[in-house]
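USER:
Before I trust my own judgement here, I would like a peer's view. Write it directly below this note and I will take it from there.

ASSISTANT:
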Amino acid sequence: MNYYNHNARQLFEQYESLSPQQVHQSWLSLMPQSGLACDIGAGTGRDARWLASLGWDVVAVEPSALRELAEQRTPSEPEPERSKTGSITWLDDSLPELKKLRALDQRFKLILMSAVWMHLPPVQHARAMRIVSELLAPGGLLVITLRQGPDEHGRFHPVSADEVIALAHERALILNKREQHPDSRRAGIDWDVLVFQLPDDGTGSLPLLRHIIVNDNKSASYKLGLLRVLIRIAEGAPGMVLRRDDHWVDIPFGLVGLYWIKTYLPLVLRHNLIQTPTANHIEQKGYGWAKANHFYSLQDISAYDLRIGACFDANVSARLIGAIRDACDNIRKMPANYITWPGQNRQVFECETRSFRHRTGPWQITRESLAQFGSFRIPTALWQTMGQYACWLEPAIFNEWIRLMQSWRAEYNLRVYDSVFQWIDASRDTSIARSRALRLQRTGAPLHCVWTEKTLRDDRFAIDHCFPWSRWLNNDLWNLMPATVKANSAKADKLPSAGLLQHSQQLIIDWWHQAYLQDPALQQQFFIEAESALPLLGGQGDAGRFDPADVFHAMQHQRARLKANQQLLEWNPR
């Protein structure tokens, strides 16, 4: 690493003098059209800019000083046959751990590791292959190039194409191409080019989830309820992760219990739809986890009230904490206990409950307070699949849930399900952001549209969900931006383009400072919400200690995640 830091500028010019089309000519025929790509060891960003010019959205991973030089270089013009470039987001991370990259919970259609593998000591090779293979999307390509020949600077370890192929086969990757060619400029240097592919759903996660949803025996809706809860958390609250490694992702058990309550409040308390064949709602019987003094006492609480960052007085706190405890106990004994790997008695999920005593007084929903209930463990590959395929999995869960309820009480009107299965936060709310914007106007502070830079006067403006509400149900303060009515209408349910978001960075951060970060209560809410919903922020420090630039950087990665997962259209007013 020191060699690259000390010689960054010289190496930058050397690498940039090579054409990426020429360097990667041997495997171009296998390249997919476009999608989400990751350039690990991106160096000067030469290949990342090339991929972006082909329409790819690229996460460029580089730990050395080359990254700082690369970020200053403008993206390449799009290829002639394409109307626009993809995006590039940079990440300071390194093999073999790739902790930050894995925290994005994203899988890539293309992973490029050009001239990287030989930097790793052989003892790290198996682990690196395991981690990188888990970052591939089903059907995705992994391209590895290996340098063979003398190394006058002592930078590299000996590498073998056969060893890399063997490691890839252990991870169920298919070798699509193997080729060796001489370096175009240096005698005595050769390059091995290896192209692997992950078969569709190579992790087995999608078949497992389909088995649980469709085939697993169900005496209640609890298995479906738990899957929906976990999918909602994986998609909407990735920042709540406590720990992760190669095999497991740990989240607060209290978060699972909280989302359980949010799921069953409308079903049981609002619409009286039974969730076990023996349930009797009038007598409050049929659910061992639903106690009269806990769950049933929350009749006056809306599911939207139970959001991350919400605070409750002593009376509500006691009831809510009791309801979460009851839910966690039921989840551990029932659905988590009986959801097993097909043909085995081994549980898919692991639970660890903890006892704690809450002193009488207010209570706030945070990652730390929810972790007091214990931890819930999800296989890492399954967690990634849940987050990535949430928009596909939820309808499958709903269809099976409806079929199950109809088998108990066929008289239910089918139209009621449309409202019952709307996620409980599905109430578009911009009131806080609008009130702060109006307050700024009254005090004479300038208010600008974050997308067009136009000054907003009087009350003729809109509050826009940066990431569209219709596609990602999120009312967090960081996601609400002042905009002209015209821009808000034109943007509609599209994502801001990568270039637009980058161009608007200072306007967005200035808005956050003016609207939220000078008020202690709103500042705390802002950072708690951001930590919950955005990747990379979790565990960095107490709420309120983040740099807003970190929140913006996490937003860039979430934008790429939403685009890849849901194939959303992009918008740019320019």
Notes: The CA atoms of residues 402 and 560 lie 33 Å apart. The chain has 23 helices and 17 strands. The longest strand covers residues 136-148.
